[in-house]
Design brief:
heterodimer, A: four-stranded antiparallel beta sheet, 11 strands, globular, B: six-stranded mixed beta sheet, four-stranded antiparallel beta sheet, 12 strands
Chain lengths: 115, 113
């Protein structure tokens, strides 16, 4: 079945450590996204990528980094510079970012807790 | 700048009641798209509907219906005869031009038996 997978589902990290969240899609979508969700805040865009080897900052990119070496993969690294990393992280993909009407498909999310 | 407001933070209803979730948006573009997503307790967002700015026809899909009114910049979502499985957080979202998707803060719907 086509879809988006995120791993792990739950992640615990000590303060000061970097951690990488995985996102893989087999929908053959060009565009991929990372969102952060906090209670009462809705979804906020961290980074997005319209094509392999290219990505742009979203609204809250500070303390995060990404790479897009393969079309199907868009890992997110939460660095120690991110001051409040505990949150629910959602990965999404769409056929193209440039075309306005494409809906985004979401993965099941990773809940990150900093101890 | 585009903006989406979902003024209802949380709504509680009893099964079989009808419920309407409000969504008001702001945009300067004449061409834009509106979306509704459902986020059940499992966490994954599920796409429900997409509507472009040139199509103001209301849409019905089973117990779900959507009322798009450009005059009031609203795109409201009604669930008829609600069921416990409808309990979720519902997000309205807006996309204009080449900008990225902007989400409202969501409305949590709790349907009790």
């Amino acid at each position: 079945d086509g879809g988006i997978t995120q791993s792990p589902k739950y992640l615990f990290r000590k303060e000061g450590q970097n951690v990488t969240l995985s996102c893989e899609q087999n929908l053959n979508h060009d565009a991929m996204y990372w969102y952060r969700q906090d209670p009462g805040q809705g979804l906020r865009l961290i980074y997005y990528s319209q094509i392999v080897n290219d990505f742009q900052k979203g609204d809250i990119a500070e303390g995060y980094s990404v790479s897009r070496e393969k079309k199907e993969s868009f890992p997110l690294t939460v660095t120690s510079a991110q001051k409040n990393p505990t949150a629910f992280y959602l990965c999404a993909s769409s056929r193209s970012e440039l075309t306005s009407y494409n809906e985004q498909f979401f993965g099941p999310g990773t809940r990150l807790t900093v101890l | 700048a585009q903006k989406v407001t979902q003024a209802q933070t949380e709504i509680s209803v009893v099964e079989k009641e009808d419920v309407t979730l409000d969504c008001v948006y702001e945009t300067r573009d004449t061409t834009y798209y509106l979306f509704w997503y459902k986020q059940p307790p499992s966490g994954e967002l599920v796409f429900l509907i997409r509507r472009n700015s040139f199509d103001e026809q209301n849409e019905i899909s089973g117990r779900y219906s959507w009322n798009f009114q450009k005059s009031t910049s609203s795109f409201n979502f009604t669930i008829t005869a609600s069921q416990v499985v409808d309990s979720a957080v519902y997000f309205c979202a807006l996309k204009e031009g080449y900008s990225t998707l902007t989400f409202g803060k969501g409305t949590m719907l709790l349907v009790s038996p």
